[in-house]
Amino acid sequence: MANIEDIVAQPPQSATWQVHLDRSMWVGGVRGLMLQALHPLAMRGVWQNSNFQEDPFGRLRRTADFVGRVTFGSPEEADEIGRRVRGIHKALRIHDPDTGRTHRVDDPELLLWVHCAEVSSYLEVARRGGLGLTERQADRYLYEQRKSAAYVGLHLDDVPGSCAEMDAYFKQVRPILRVTEEAAAAVRFLMWPRLPHELRLLSAGKPVYFPFGALCYYTLPDWARRMYGALPEVPRATVTAALKAFRLGLNSLPEPVHDRAFMPATRRMLQASRERLGAAGYDVSKGLKGLTDPRRWPPKPAA
């Protein structure tokens, strides 16, 4: 039987699979972008080096592609996208109008901020939405995500690998965060985005998107919402109930239907992953999500 480490970048028994297969990831992804925007230099890097102003939803889908490949893709696919991302970042620069200085996009401090804002958002939204992870499993998720951070060029030892370490990191970095004009605009875009060309057929339903964008905003940490002040506060219990309902609804969608939200290349990668796992003896009749159930794994060889 093939070694699972040769089939997918992260194994089905990982905490990463439990979090990344949960449909609350869409809320976590947008929340992560909103949180990332509070770092002035990181936000200017996005603003100056991407088409975020025209297509903020596209950035979310590209992030989903990266996360998918370093989770469900083959080790070769994960390594390839890591090289691609590192190559892109290496060539880009950020001009800071406050100081007149130019910074590298692949500055380790900026990469670390983006990573922590992203993975902490995935984890916190999934747990608040009802994914039953223990504290030990939550720590395990962050520990496993150090591998994802290494793909973009960070050193494993520099990346928080537990909830306590992540909390300490945010406490350390908060004094440099602030709401720039770019950050305020980013939050507005994320609550009312322009849809990419291939999703323009959904434009008629765009007003329905605002409650989703607002839900993402309301899942931000209290201190982040106080900084933005973009929407009036609502009771925490109301936000949690809405998040649980959203998660329940999306988790009920069949995997092929849900996959249509991804870019075509991402869909092909996910299908190839299913095929490799099926050929290795895993029961993929319930899709990748079904493999979070150990009963669908191949039986262990007799000793």
Automatic annotation (TrEMBL):
Location of the ER-bound oxygenase mpaB/mpaB'/Rubber oxygenase catalytic domain: 17-239
Keywords carried by this UniProt record: Oxidoreductase
InterPro entries to which the protein is assigned, alphabetical: MPAB/Lcp_cat_dom
Single GO term (MF): oxidoreductase activity
EC number: 1.-.-.-
Record protein name field: Oxygenase MpaB family protein
